[in-house]
């Protein structure tokens, strides 16, 4: 039974993936969505019909400066995230932001500085692969040392939806990073699953498939990673992939290996070619885009309950992604510059 009086009121800016946030907020006993925003009037009307009773606006500031709103979802185009985060923090709003947090190191440092000054406010990001059952189980096994010492990690974000960068907003904004926009999910997953820290990155890129399109930026980026434990790895953000949207992750350790990809998921426990792997057939991805919101709301209401993606973890993943972009520009290995605010 839901409470008659809800403690938190939420607003949502951006109604692409942001529409999925509505259910996440409204599923919580102590929160309701009271206002939604999109600059596209037709999109706003369509979403409003599916969710009647919620106020609408085409002006983000009408959510940011609304004194009755406690928490804001920022699901606008990537180039708006930083300014909307800063403005929302200035108005003492809690923030749930779609990745990426920002696009540049300057924006990153400004957000980190503001969060340090506003430690009573909460921020999290929709790093939704943390909700996938097989990745949760993998993390649990690694924490129990079932795989042993990891030494090599391989990850790829296979976008499989090239029309979105060739025809959509991603090709129209001043700067779009395929690593910030997609690969960051795998960066976060590697950090979260292993508890290991990425110390440095060396990256490279290509732009073969989209060279004659409106998309002006690298469409495939790969980075070599050096971890604090001594492990190495690489992460790829592959937007032109001729393969359905999905994620690949392999972790090699001295007791066993884990492989997840478009052809299935399995653990390998032996080097013997006659030994059968342990196949994993649970639901994948097994989550929807609003599923991380309830734990974030619980944290706002009770600081003893932790969100599924903490503000420090959001900053750490973003720091790695920014370093990958910086390595692309310099052609050199870049030490990851973290910001610690916990």
Annotation keywords:
342 residues; alpha/beta; 6-stranded parallel sheet; 15 strands; 31% helix; 24% strand
Distance between the termini: 35 Å
Strand order of the largest sheet: 14-13-12-11-7-10-9-8-15
Q: Write down the overall mean pLDDT.
A: 96
Q: Which radius of gyration do the C-alpha atoms yield?
A: 20 Å
Structural class based on helices, strands and sheet pairing? alpha/beta
SSE order, one letter for each helix or strand: EHEHEHEHEHEHEHHEEEEEEEHHE
The low-confidence runs, each spanning 5 or more residues with pLDDT under 50, are none
Strand percentage: 15-25%
Shape: globular
Q: Would you count the extended β strands for me? A: 15
Outline the biggest β-sheet: 9 strands, mixed
**Tally of DSSP helical segments:** 10
Helix amount: 25-40%
Can you describe what's shown?
The protein has 342 residues and is α/β, with parallel strands linked by helices. It has helices at 19-26, 41-50, 61-64, 81-90, 105-117, 133-143, 163-166, 178-194, 293-301, 311-330, and strands spanning 8-13, 31-37, 55-57, 71-74, 94-97, 123-125, 150-158, 198-206, 220-227, 232-238, 246-253, 257-261, 264-268, 278-279, 334-335. Helix 4 packs parallel to helix 5 (105-117) and helix 6 crosses helix 8 (178-194).
